[in-house]
Amino acid sequence: MRSQILCAALAILSACASGGKGSETCPSFRMMTWNIAAGHGNLARIADEIRMDKPDVVALQEVDVKWSERSAFVDQADSLAKSLGMNVRFGPIYDLSGRQFGVAILSRFSIATSTNHEITRLSTQQQNPVPAKAPGFLETVLDIRGTRVRVFSTHLDYRSDPSVRVKQVGEMLEILRQSGMPTILAGDLNATPEAAELKPLMQELHTVSTEMTYPADSPVKRIDYVLASKPVALTDPHVHATSASDHRAVAMTATVCTK
Predict the structure, then answer these.
(1) Alpha carbon of 102 to those of 37, 64, 95, 154, 199: distances in Å?
(2) Could you tell me which residues come within 8 angstroms of residue 168 by beta carbon, excluding any fewer than 6 positions away?
(3) Whole-angstrom Cα distance, residue 249 to residue 241?
(4) What are the residues facing 61 on neighbouring strands?
(5) pLDDT per residue as tens digits for the range 193-219
(6) Are 172 and 201 in contact (CB under 8 A)?
(7) What is the C-alpha separation between 47 and 154, in angstroms, rounded?
(8) Is the pLDDT of residue 24 over 80?
(9) Residue 201 CA: distances (Å) to CA of 185, 229, 232
(10) pLDDT exceeds 70 at position 186
(11) Is the pLDDT of residue 16 over 50?
């Protein structure tokens, strides 16, 4: 009898240490990030390819919400959420009389709160723009099997001049430091891992190496990332080959151990 009790106790301890999806101590989930380039005219294909990887949380960039003819004026965030059976929050970067373009987060977990933070941007919708604060740095707080986790979706400036990205990285770090909650930052950073402007971010957060992500048809750059704070372990990375967007999707397993 004593040996049976001991075996049961050891089994419970082993399950807690494993960090599997059934573990409440160290819950795991599949995290994906993808710049979908407004679906390239085929949002159903975007949904199908996300479904193939079976992610629990997805950070999306270049999402149209009733933006233009290129996406048939569809609310892409809402449509993807309904198709995939997930919760969603959308963070517009641009809002032009109800025509919106920005980032989104899909989640199989409940979304406790969401905030669309401002960081410096150089607008693509103005002539002769100057760097100025604008929204589109989306934060959600997810309840993952009893553990609260902050998940951000971001899209940094694409220009070869890194000066705007330098400001964006500094401003994102200020927001990230406002809470000690386990944190994941995912998105299109438009810079390779060795870029000087990403160094402060890489020093504060960690990631795992993946294959190249851009351009999707024959990638030569790694510019799409999942990064995490120390309580979050990242494993099993996978880059999804696709022609549904000009970026490849990045997915990996996140395990959160706060005790």
Answers:
(1) 11, 7, 9, 9, 25
(2) 119, 120, 121, 156, 157
(3) 7
(4) 35
(5) 999 999 999 999 999 999 999 999 999
(6) yes
(7) 20
(8) no
(9) 10, 10, 16
(10) yes
(11) no
What's the token pair of residue 88? 């969603």
Residues 70, 120: Cα–Cα separation, whole Å: 27
Task: Determine the average pLDDT of the residues in 22-45.
Answer: 90
Contacts of residue 214, defined as CB under 8 A and 6 or more positions apart, other chains included, come to 220, 221, 222, 223, 224, 246, 247, 248
Give me the pLDDT at residue 241, please.
95
Amino acid 58: pLDDT: 98
Mean pLDDT over each residue of the chain, to the nearest integer: 92
Q: Which of 132, 177, 133 lies closest to 152 in space, CA to CA?
A: 177
**Alpha helices in the chain, H assignment, sequence order:** 2-18, 43-53, 76-84, 163-176, 199-204
Nearest to 158, CA basis, from 113, 221, 239, 83: 221
In CATH terms, the fold of domain 30-256 is Deoxyribonuclease I; Chain A (3.60.10)
| Tokens of residue 149, six digits | 């986790």
Contacts for 125 with CB less than 8 Å, ≥ 6 apart: 94, 96
Residue keyed to tokens 């604060």? 133
Q: Which residue has the tokens 């993807």?
A: 80
The pTM for the full model equals: 0.90
Domain residues of the chain, as ranges? 30-256
Whether the predicted pLDDT of 112 surpasses 70:
yes
Contact 183, 150 (CB under 8 A): yes
